[in-house]
Write a structure and sequence with these properties.
The complex is a heterodimer of chains A (126) and B (274). With 126 residues, chain A is an all-alpha fold. Chain A has helices at 12-16, 18-21, 27-32, 49-53, 60-70, 75-87, 95-104, 117-121. Chain A folds into two domains: 12-70, no CATH class; 75-121, no CATH class. The two termini of chain A are 27 Å apart. Chain B has two domains: 2-120, Up-down Bundle (Glutathione S-transferase Yfyf (Class Pi), Chain A, domain 2), CATH 1.20.1050.140; 131-261, Rossmann fold. Chain B has helices spanning 8-14, 16-28, 54-68, 78-90, 94-104, 120-125, 128-134, 155-158, 168-175, 192-195, 199-212, 224-232, 234-238, 251-258, and strands at residues 2-6, 32-35, 72-75, 116-119, 142-145, 179-180, 218-221, 247-250. Chain B is globular.
């Protein structure tokens, strides 16, 4: 991963990162130290605190997402994405089953997205 | 007044009580919600982690809202709020919008205007005085809140409250009469998004919160993700530390109690939540 030229390695992102607070190392570890190897872009929680605080205006979240697309995803992300591709939602719950639960709570029935929806929306452009 | 309602995967599939309580509280304020039928995943962070095309998934959901004839869609999770708001902004670019409409054409959908995405916290914050006037059962509770991180940042896109130290959730909790305890972790991570990548670290984040909030009667969430980690997954955290067990409610459940709504209308089993 290429270190962004705009980054001045001031450490601000590290001090505000909630993942660093619980002992994990996300992209901010790399920004503060381009030689770091003990970090993972998959640990970012998308809280946007680093980007909000960055004095150099680095688009940290976009850098993180671009790097994710170049890497092998952890199992949890892969499973969730496969479900989105298959049924449009992060979990596969049949419509009938879902509506039985909703009825028990007094909630109106829902219709789930049409099959093949997501593959057609996410097809590469051009 | 009627508004479109987008619960998102997690609340639709796992947390009907959040939808129920949201509807009950908004009904008191004269707002009815119409659920977005055939809605899909908002697009992030899951799809966004795999493809830059995530924005077209978000565009599909916004196009559904537009077809329903609504200018505003109400959300209850931080992630969906953030994703749909960013997509609505991105779709202001004529090229992005044209490509979205090419992909939506076969579905008979299109994006022609900017749909406003409004999280429940924002909707309630705009009606603070109305809520104050309707609060008939002030609550005697000590509450530890977690701000739904993605509702407030990036500040220039979300345009609501202070992006670094948001106050609207605290103000809404205080309206109920409950005392907000300060524990220093109001803006720290619940751990839910971490769970997809590293479950042990996610549970450590949750444990940190439970340890810091021992002085509170309950935890208070305004996002399905926080509730997922800190309530649904709590048994995994407290297995070796039962003393850390803590009740956790959604914001509209707490507000609903203060409005005098019956517990069953808020998705709370009578008497058991205290």
């Amino acid at each position: 991963m290429k270190h962004p030229t705009a980054c001045i390695q001031c450490d601000t992102c590290v001090t505000v990162c909630p993942v660093e607070k619980v002992g994990g190392h996300a992209i901010v570890t790399f920004l503060a130290d381009p030689d770091a190897t003990d970090y993972s872009v998959w640990l970012c929680t998308s809280c946007w605190r680093c980007q909000e605080a960055c004095p150099a205006g680095v688009n940290i979240r976009e850098l993180m997402m671009e790097q994710r697309r170049r890497e092998q995803a952890p199992a949890g992300y892969r499973a969730a994405f496969e479900s989105v591709l298959a049924c449009g939602l992060a979990l596969e719950v049949p419509q009938e089953e879902l509506n039985l639960v909703r009825a028990a709570w007094g909630l109106e029935p829902v219709r789930l997205p049409p099959p093949d929806l997501v593959r057609s929306l996410l097809r590469s452009s051009g | 007044m009627k508004l479109a309602f987008y619960p998102g995967c997690l609340v639709l599939q796992r947390m009907p009580e959040y939808e129920l309580a949201t509807r009950a509280v908004l009904r008191e304020l004269g707002i009815e919600l119409e659920i977005v039928q055939q809605a899909a995943c908002c697009g992030a962070p899951v799809a966004e982690s795999f493809t830059a095309d995530w924005v077209y998934l978000a565009a599909y959901n916004l196009a559904l809202v537009e077809r329903m004839g609504y200018g505003t869609v109400v959300t209850v999770c931080g992630g969906c709020t953030n994703t749909l708001t960013r997509a609505a902004c991105a779709l202001q670019d004529p090229d992005v919008r044209a490509e979205a409409n090419r992909r939506l054409e076969t579905l008979g959908l299109s994006v022609t205007r900017q749909v406003e995405v409004k999280h429940l916290v924002r909707l309630l914050a705009e009606r603070e005085e109305d809520l104050r006037a309707r609060t008939v059962c002030p609550l005697s509770l000590r509450v530890a809140l977690t701000n739904p991180c993605q509702v407030f940042r990036p500040g220039d896109v979300m345009g609501f409250d202070d992006p670094v130290e948001p106050q609207s959730v605290r103000r809404l909790v205080e309206l109920t009469g409950a005392e907000v305890i300060e524990y220093g972790g109001e803006d720290e991570c619940c751990g839910a998004t971490l769970y997809l990548a590293e479950p042990d670290l996610a549970l450590a984040a949750g444990r940190r919160k439970l340890e810091a909030t021992q002085g509170a009667d309950l935890l208070l969430h305004s996002c399905g993700n926080c509730q997922l980690l800190l309530r649904r997954f709590q048994r995994m955290i407290v297995r070796d530390a039962p003393g850390l067990r803590k009740q956790a409610l959604f914001l509209p459940q707490l507000v609903g109690l203060a409005l005098g709504l019956p517990e069953e209308e808020l998705g709370l089993r009578e008497g058991t939540w205290r």
